[in-house]
Amino acid sequence: MKKTILSCLLALGFISASAQDQQPKTEYVFNPHWYVQIQPLGIQHTLGEVDFGDLNSYNVQAAIGRQFDPIFGARLAVNAWQSKAGSKMDNNKYKWDWKYVAPTVDLTINLSNALCGFNPTRVFNFGVFLGVGANVAFSNSKAADAQAAMNQAYGVNSLEYIWDGTKVNFVGQGGITADFRLSNAISLGLEVSANTLSDKYNSKKAGNWDWYFNALAGVKINLGPTYSTRVIPAPEPEIRYVEKVVEKVVEVPAPAPQIEPLRRDVFFKINSFKISDEEAGKVKDIADYLTKHPAAKVIVTGYADAGTGNDKINDRLAAQRADAVVKSLKEDYSIAASRISYDSKGARVQPFAENDMNRVTICIAE
Questions:
Q1: What is the mean pLDDT of residues 170-190?
Q2: What is the rounded distance in angstroms from the CA atom of residue 179 to the CA atom of residue 22?
């Protein structure tokens, strides 16, 4: 009896030492989404010869954009209001202004995610953008008035590029952004940009490109969820069993009954992560197996075919396909998250020789 008690105490000691207090991890998964920007507070400064304060004017902008992944996005922005110019002769200043509308297409880059990793709950995000578009200018009558005044006072026509009606110029721009997150849907943003266009924009001949600079403040509204979460179960603790010895009799635990594993391959259409009606029955098979065997668990692995897309697109698509199966198991069949292990291989691993069959999520329950 003493030997039996001692053997049991030793076994409990080994089990306690081997078990680690590991917790499951929660990961953020980026969701592509649309957004709108409204920037009603803006100031424009146009380069010119007169004092700095004489060349500042009010400025507004609105945009609609798409964030494709945590780093890259694109937007269509429309900037508008007024530009100013001026000329100084002796102690006399001549100033004029005109209206414009400037639509541009911009590539946006989130430098915070690029340098520090994707974090949708980060309070501050810093980024840059580059774009091209058209500046449609009109209402330039004040430039003609200024030229008439200079001609009368000095007998010169200094505005060699004066224009009338509507003038369209190519515009290129680049700038920086700073967004301050208020919630998952709303953030406040600051933006500064430099814009360059034809020398004929301000009616004066200077022999170089004209420039104006915009500083804008406003709100950005995300349309739809920007991210989701997934739980990675903690690894099972390693348990070591010690045989109990009673004199010369060795007691070994009876082997657990063997359960045949179950595999189901859930196939998807090209560029899709939606489970079709034809494939939904396979998910139900896995759920029925787990319900029948309470100790069983399932490994869900997503794939994409290497014949289409690129690694970045395929990595996202494979993860979304695995997420779709995991979500169905949890929400449609109430399978506990602790019984589901999740992984995705993108297109770097191809389980099937036929390219189209690799648009798949492989589920192995045992």
A1: 96
A2: 36
